[in-house]
Specification:
By secondary structure, the chain is α/β, with parallel strands linked by helices. 34% of the residues lie in helices and 14% in strands. The chain has a seven-stranded parallel β-sheet with strand order 8-7-6-9-10-11-12, sandwiched between helices. Helix 1 crosses helix 12 and helix 4 (113-127) packs across helix 6.
Length: 352
Amino acid sequence: MDDTFCPPLKPQLKLAVYTERPDEKMYFERFGRQFGVMLVERTEDPVLETACFADGVPCITVITTPIGAPLLEAFYERGVRFISTRSIGIDHIDREAATRLGIRIGNVSYDPDAVSNYTVMLILMAIRRVKNIARLCAAGDFSLRCGVQGRNLRNLTVGIAGTGRIGKRVVEHLSSFGCPILVYSLRRSSGRENGAYAEDPSVQKYARYVDWDEFLASSDIISLHLHPTPETRHIINRDTIAKMKDGVILVNTARGGLVDSEALTQSVESGKVSGAALDVHEDELGLYYKDLRGKPLSNRPLAVLRSFPNVIVTPHTAFYTDQTVSDMVENTLRSCLHFVNGEPNPWEVSTP
């Protein structure tokens, strides 16, 4: 980010931070001093019982905890008019209720290398069967046996669904492996005839744009990088999986709701899907980022998928690097300052 950014201090902004993690604290202190922001730092989640921490505060910053209508009403009554979530996704916030109340919403951006690097790592782990290898090695079995032989990436066609900042970077990274790359984009170009899909020249250097059916039928590996919308919810389902190659591998570092987890479970059991690597899962709120050791896992599809030797599950950590945490904290404060100062805000999300 540009270190010359110096927002006017008029008057000093007071901001409530919810669910502050220890790894975020140093960045909140650093950027709070730099930007002249008075912080009310809380480790508690934003719920009705903790809404009082936002009394008299125009802006709050949250992470991916549910922010429903009753909580939004409680925040509005205390003077909150802007909520900045320290994430790209905003599906945990009831945007219709926020719009009705007059509370504006913002997200943040961060270095796309974190998620794109993690995605490539998961692709390699899936095709090299690292989960099974690690399990056998931990048990003292060092033999070359069935279940550990991998595949070369250059011999596989990789399909990238979504060519935003992260999807584009994944394409760039994969280009060095020599594998054929297909891309599918939901973004339409208004300047093209018949509403054709927009094609990014920087992506076309390394990959070929195809329609959805060809994408599904021709990809050995499918990696998802789509935003969560009504159009993309369960875009991977029984019907779309049926159109895929036998033995396809699915990677998801975007949003859990893109995949019908029941359909994926059945497809892994049948062998139609030979492997998966999932950093996100539908209905993950209330599970991920919690220490649930010794407790039953309430999400049954997730519990089943975790048990498969050919399915890698990680708890929504693809973003989690020192650079991205710094970016997220810095940009949530910048966003709140833009709002308070009445300035154009690149992170404000339009109403639904």
